[in-house]
Amino acid sequence: SIDAVGAREILDSRGNPTVEVEVALDDGTITRAAVPSGASTGAFEAVELRDGGDRYNGKGVTQAVDGVLDVIGPELVGFEASEQRLLDQRLIDLDGTPDKSRLGANAVLGVSLAVAKAAAESAGLPLFRYVGGPSAHLLPVPMMNILNGGAHADSNVDVQEFMIAPIGAATFAEALAVGTETYHALKSVLKKRGLSTGLGDEGGFAPSLPSNRDALDLIVEAVQAAGYTVGTDIAFALDVAATEFHSDAGYAFEGKTLSSAELTEYYAGLVDAYPIVSIEDPLSEEDWDGWVALTQALGDRVQIVGDDLFVTNPARLADGIARGAANALLVKVNQIGTLTETLDAVTLAHRSGYRSMMSHRSGETEDTTIADLAVALDCGQIKTGAPARSERVAKYNQLLRIEEELDDAARYAGAAAFPRLAA
Ligand code: PGA
Ligand code: ZN
Predict the structure, then answer these.
(1) What is the pTM of this model?
(2) DSSP letter at 230?
(3) GO biological process annotations for this chain's record (predicted)?
């Protein structure tokens, strides 16, 4: 059972404060978990508690840390660490708000994940096995964000993330090599053209480009330069993060103001021209009717992923499923704030025929929990940035370890992660 719960303020990959929690069990087990943070956050996400004031530009988390030390910790002493669902319910009740704004989702999530890790270690199991059970064996396709725009870069590119999916590989390790070689080839392509090779928040390059199609053309060139075939070895995926450029007037895209129908037309043209298998947040988090129409128009050719739309919230996801909005769920543990609610969202998605993509945040730490969760929850896809910057690479490295541990039982999701493409 739980002996003590500690917490401290540490820094994330952008140099902003975040919460780290440590849990000690009475059998001597000690584990820790650190909490990520987004930049293009959805309005319906659970709330991060930030101190305000001048220190760290208002982004300190000492109140969230104090909440763990003074409110949550004392409540949990003596609690069985393996009772995750009961424990997460206790956290939700202790907070008492629908969006976890009293104690902060950053405080609550840190405790929830640290306890799960402690229970796994105490049981002598790797986290993916403890959470996923004896049959967890599917290694996800790494959706590598190699060109960053939008809120993650100081460029004029509207689309936030241009990802490559190494679908043709036989193993995760091979997929990582194929994707990383392409990333390095992209650097050479950019250099040759005199374009910037500076990196965005998620480790991808962040050049200024005349249009979003130019980004895709550069990636096509990089794939070929690396010796791979576009479409069979490597497919493409986008996170448009369209909420960021949406207002009452419409979508401010490439210097024009577009309606959702016009933006959907634009995507249809992209899907015709490039091997795009997945588009995330193509429209804004408020535009339900647009999402339904877009899913009808494109959903049998391409995966449509709800991030800001669903915010890993089982209730919002249920609403979207009932309406027919999107056909896949982006999974971010800190959008909802507990492991249990994350599991519930993914279970609901899979039972409803929606696919799922595990995801990092643009502000990350060295914590690798999401790598284990991607395998445990059978996601088949993970996005955790470019193969650069250690907070991104740490997750890919953890997946290498998991694949090695699973040995002959491991299976790489590959093209089958996108059934309509495989068909
Ligand atoms: P964020 O971006 O972590 O800044 O929200 C990631 C995403 O939009 O998927
Ligand atoms: Zn997103």
Answers:
(1) 0.97
(2) B
(3) glycolytic process
Query: Is residue 153 scored above 90 in pLDDT?
Result: no
* Residue 377: band (very low, low, confident or very high) from pLDDT cuts 50, 70, 90: very high
Mutate to test the pocket of ligand 1, among 45, 201, 332 (most ligand atoms within 8 A of CB): 332
Place of tokens 């997945």: 278
At position 22, the amino acid (one-letter code) is E
Tell me, in angstroms, the distance from the centre of ligand 1 to residue 53's CA: 25
Beta strand 2-11 with 161-165: parallel, antiparallel or unpaired?
Answer: unpaired
Three-state secondary-structure class, residue 232: coil
CB 329 within 8 A of CB 381: no
Catalytically annotated residues? 202, 332
Ligand nearest to the CA of 363: 1
Cα(308) to ligand 2 centroid in Å equals 7
Which residue do the tokens 């059934």 mark? 419
Going 61 to 66 to 69 to 74, the CA torsion angle's sign is negative
45 is in an annotated binding site: no
Interface confidence, given as ipTM, is 0.98
Q: Compute CA distances 256 → 58, 246, 249, 293, whole Å.
A: 35, 12, 11, 21
Cα→Cα distances 70→5, 10, 30, 64, 100, Å: 10, 18, 19, 10, 17
Structural Rg of the chain based on CA atoms: 21
* 137 has binding-site annotation: no
368: DSSP letter:
-
- The strand pairing partners of 162, in sequence order, are 147, 238
Q: Which ligand is nearest to the CA of 201?
A: 1
Task: For residues 151 and 41, give the distance between their C-alpha atoms in angstroms, rounded to a whole number.
Answer: 10
CA dihedral in degrees (312, 138, 234, 342; nearest 10)? 10
Q: Does the beta carbon of 137 lie inside 6 Å of ligand 1?
A: no
Instruction: Give the pairing type, strands 17-25 and 2-11.
Output: antiparallel
